[in-house]
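Hi P.,

Sorry for the delay on this. The queue was packed all week, but I finally got your sequence through. Input first:
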Amino acid sequence: MAKVKTIVVGTGSMARGHIRTMLDMQRSTLLVGFVEPSEASRAQTQAIFAERGRGCPPFYDSIQQLIEAQGSPDAALIATPHKYHLENARDCLLGDIDVCLEKPMVMNVAQARELIALRDKTRRLVMVAFPGSLSPAIWEAKRLIVEGTLGKITAIAAFAYQHWKQATQGTWRQNPEISGGGFLFDTGSHMVNTVVDLLGEDVAQVRALFDNRGTPVEIASSVSGVSKSGVLFSLTGAGDSIQCNSEITVFGDRAVLKTGIWGESLALKKQNQPEFVAVKYRPSKGPWEQFLKVRGGKMENPCPPEVGLRFAKLMDMIRQSADLETPQTAKRGRARWAK
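Then the structure:
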């Protein structure tokens, strides 16, 4: 099988994780260039290649500059700040390049619809790198739910916590003009997307509270909602905490299922079982492996831009509710709830 000539647009910490995975997939992936204006990010990327005793592909200031220098590659992984996702994806699609686009796909619903129109116009592949939607563990969880192993689903509860506020201080992630939102829109987007994946249907209604904790963006969040068929769900985002971890629990009247927002684990507890039992699922190298399978015609796209549109619509609902229900003191600093 011919190697897929690949570029990476944006080589920050998230992208460098993908680059390491790509270097482990040399039989299928050939990295031919990077688009990155930051000298610091370029140096950190070069270090990855130096550690492996390999030469680093060239860097460019723009996608157009790269195409002019070496022609259009086969595919691109885009991992730039959120504000630039649509622009970068547009440049790639119009350059006949298939796109794997980091989450959240774009900034809002209008941009999501524009990207879908571009996908349709160019007939190129666009896959959103939501690990939950691309996780064999979540696929297995959905299969168990659909086949009735859990019985009737009554509720879903999820949380995500991270040392996010301190770790992102002074970066673009706390600039709403570039990031599009705070912890819930960034790390928490995995939680939002995976919960809706497990619901398997649209959300009918949400109620939300935000606390910016003295920053320009939301840091802590509490969201409750109900799906079209009446399944209740809750989402807790704690971006001013420790480490980085998560959990999603799906409650049925015959069994309870646990997983994580990235689909990194799966366990099931049935009636009269004292403990959760791990559920087997096939291993995966993550979004890039799934992207190559979709591109090679081996599977349907599990996370097309319509998933990004679904997420954008739900985030709009959550923000509108938070604007109505969150006390203004919470947006300036620590929340003070009225009794």
